[in-house]
Amino acid sequence: MTISQEIISEIARYAQMAPSGDNLQDWRLSLNGDTLELIGEFDDHPFNFNHRPSLTGYGAVLENARIASEEFGFEMIEELFPEGANKKLISSLRFSKSPSKNQQPLFPYLETRAVNRGKYQKKELPPEMRKELVKTAEESGFGKLLLTENSASKQKAAKAAFFGSQIMMEHQGVHQSLFQNIRWTQAEAEKTRDGLFIKTLELGFQEPAFRLLRSWTLTSILNFFGLSLFAAFRDYQLSMGSSALGLIEIPDDSPQSILNGGKLFERLWLKMSSLGLSLQPESAIVYFLHLFWEQPHHFTPSQRRVLEKGARALKEAFPMKNEKGILMLFRLGYASKAPSTRSLRKLVEI
Ligand SMILES: Cc1cc2nc3c(=O)[nH]c(=O)nc-3n(C[C@H](O)[C@H](O)[C@H](O)COP(=O)(O)O)c2cc1C
Q1: Cα of 60 to ligand 1 centre, how many Å?
Q2: pLDDT at residue 1 is higher than 70
Q3: Would the CB of 19 count as within 6 Å of ligand 1?
Q4: How confident is the model over 90-133, as pLDDT tens digits?
Q5: SS3 of 245, please?
Q6: Do 5-111 and 119-333 have matching folds?
Q7: Among 17, 22, 18, CA closest to 284
Q8: Model pLDDT for residues 19-44, shown as the tens digit of each residue
Q9: 22 lines ligand 1 (CB under 6 A)
């Protein structure tokens, strides 16, 4: 039996729910005959270096599409980079009827998974959950999940996240792109259906002050008085207050490995949602380090020193085989409350 256009549309709708850096959803899903195409709409901003954040999101889109298609009784046949890895056509997806209906335990979480940037409860991660998550990564064949084992390694990993946040407030280009991607009102969020709606940042009473930081001049003056350290300390505290920090390590830097790493990241996030756990990526330090290792000129000498400390802290926190294989850093745990609001998605019309 061939697949109907209605089912492909449904699969695309679930695929669109994937997470993306700053919720930019920098891809397009389009129907070509009976093939669903995933087209990258990445930009060449230095902080999208090697399209790492974009490719990680595309991996999540493909993971969602696979789970949904199997839930609907179709096997997804995926051709990656049919026109070459530097082209915009990321993947062509075809669907063939599965001999048996194969219910997907992670399917219900495609719709409910969400980033939770609030406080988490001071609770340990039960050893059986820890094992299950590590096993999920092992079985994927896409990469490894490393989790902090004790408070000393958590402190190191939280320090690495701290250094990433510090640079975010101190680098004009990063500041500019972050603030451009914020949607300041509900109406604005509903109009674009992408970007970071301010309420999802869970800033609480600090929100009015944060709004003033749109101005780089003000931010850079306040940085002189310790603003970037104050902001980074907030992230450090959130990390220390969560059950663990996790790091995904991938075998190499190829676009295919990054994309597969994105599939693994989404699978783990959905798995955590199914276990009642919440997650917040702390990706800044990871992306800054990759850029720093290849093109240090994007950073000032003092920012380079901060990044060197970040790299050291990550290495001490996690027993990595290859530090250049870092794909994603995140904190995880039991959220104190549900997210205040959910981020929106662009409507898929195929
Ligand atoms: C590649 C990638 C990097 C991300 N980095 C961060 C991050 O550093 N901090 C953060 O709070 N969220 C981060 N996120 C989460 C996204 O902002 C979030 O998924 C997006 O806003 C959509 O919201 P949702 O996941 O709740 O649907 C990242 C997501 C992806 C896929």
Answers
A1: 11
A2: no
A3: yes
A4: 999 999 999 887 789 999 999 999 999 999 999 999 999 999 99
A5: strand
A6: yes
A7: 22
A8: 999 999 999 999 999 999 999 999 88
A9: yes
Q: Which two tokens stand for residue 341?
A: 């609001």
For residue 301, the one-letter residue type is P
Q: Find out whether 35 and 92 touch, Cβ atoms under 8 Å.
A: yes
DSSP one-letter code for 199: G
Distance between Cα 20 and ligand 1 center (Å):
5
Please say whether the structural domain 119-333 has been given the CATH code 3.40.109.
yes
- C-alpha of residue 281 to centroid of ligand 1, in Å: 6
**Domain spans in the chain, listed from the N-terminal domain onward:** 5-111, 119-333
Please work out whether the CB of residue 114 comes within 6 Å of at least one atom of ligand 1.
yes
Is the C-beta atom of 246 inside 6 A of ligand 1?
A: no
The pTM of this model reads: 0.98
Write down the pLDDT at residue 317.
Answer: 98
Q: How far apart are CA 270 and CA 262, in angstroms?
A: 12
284 lines ligand 1 (CB under 6 A): yes
CA 299/CA 289 separation, integer angstroms: 10
Q: Does the domain at residues 5-111 carry the CATH identifier 1.10.287.90?
A: no
β 278-281/326-333 pair status: antiparallel
Distance 201 CA to ligand 1 centre (A): 11
- The residue type of 264 is L
Maximal C-alpha separation, the chain: 66
Residue 57 in contact with ligand 1 by CB distance below 6 A: yes
